[in-house]
Design goal:
This protein has 272 residues and is mainly alpha-helical. The chain is 65% helix and 6% strand. Helix 1 packs antiparallel against helix 13, helix 2 (42-54) packs across helix 3 (59-65) and helix 4 (75-96) packs across helix 5 (111-117).
Length: 272
């Protein structure tokens, strides 16, 4: 009876551990996807960085400049835009029906006829818009000119959100302990020494000098963002201590929460 009870407890405990690991892995997969998205927008980020340097401003200020702007739209502008959209839809419908049987193909409706045939919708639109201008948001004209999309800026702004979260003293720079913590939001786990080595290697590749004691290095947001986009290139720089004990401890420090939990349970379960 005691054996059966203990076995039941172990099974329940194992099920809870499995559920916890899977839940944590879902979070880690989401963070890994954010890193993939950030790497994907690297060409756009490089363009933005060059534009920020040309305009003598920081990258984050340029991103704020390219944010959607609130504008006022009159009733006439709304109706003109609607007519243009109706005309474009009618033209597309007409072009798509050219290859079909002309007898079976429906005739395209002219924009004016469409508006005349649906007075209730026009009346509802007029009542909604009214005589006063509406406040709407539009993409920044300069951002549209440079072909910078909000979807691309979203990943860079997320990286800045993480950067700003760990910039506790508002210095505009992150120290290595802060960089190491920020890495975890992109599913990257390193020891402080590994994070310092990778960061300094990247900075030197970019033509910057680094301190003799690499742990003392600090990075600005643009450097942090581009480091994240190039992090896979420095994966071999994760050196390990020679001492066996420190080597084992270092491996545990560099594990993700799900892998760490699973490794501990592999040790604990046989002992139970």
């Amino acid at each position: 009876a005691d054996f059966l009870q203990v076995s039941t407890y172990l099974c329940v405990f194992a099920a809870l551990e499995f559920g916890f690991v899977q839940f944590v892995r879902m979070s880690e997969d989401g963070r890994a996807e954010k890193l993939k998205g950030l790497v994907k927008v690297k060409p756009v980020a490089e363009k933005l960085f060059n534009l920020s340097r040309a305009q003598n401003m920081t990258l984050i200020k340029l991103l704020n400049k390219y944010a959607p702007k609130e504008v006022q739209v009159t009733k006439e502008e709304m109706e003109a835009k609607k007519k243009a959209a109706d005309a474009e839809a009618a033209e597309a419908k007409e072009n798509s029906s050219d290859d079909e049987d002309q007898a079976a193909a429906p005739k395209p409706v002219a924009p004016a006829a469409a508006n005349a045939a649906s007075p209730p919708a026009t009346q509802a639109s007029a009542n909604t818009v009214g005589s006063q201008a509406l406040k709407v948001k539009r993409s920044d004209p300069e951002a549209v000119k440079e072909k910078v999309k909000e979807a691309d800026m979203a990943f860079i702004l997320y990286a800045y959100k993480i950067f700003d979260q760990y910039d506790a003293d508002n210095s505009g720079c992150l120290s290595i302990p802060e960089v190491r913590k920020a890495f975890t939001y992109f599913n990257i786990y390193m020891s402080s020494r590994q994070a310092a080595t990778v960061t300094c290697m990247y900075l030197r590749d970019m033509g910057n000098n680094t301190p003799k004691n690499e742990v003392e290095v600090e990075v600005r947001f643009s450097q942090f963002a581009f480091l994240m986009m190039s992090i896979d290139s420095y994966s071999l720089a994760r050196s390990e201590p020679r001492n066996l004990i420190f080597k084992v401890l270092n491996r545990f420090v560099c594990m993700s929460p799900s892998v760490f939990t699973d490794a501990i349970m592999k040790i604990v379960f046989p002992l139970l």
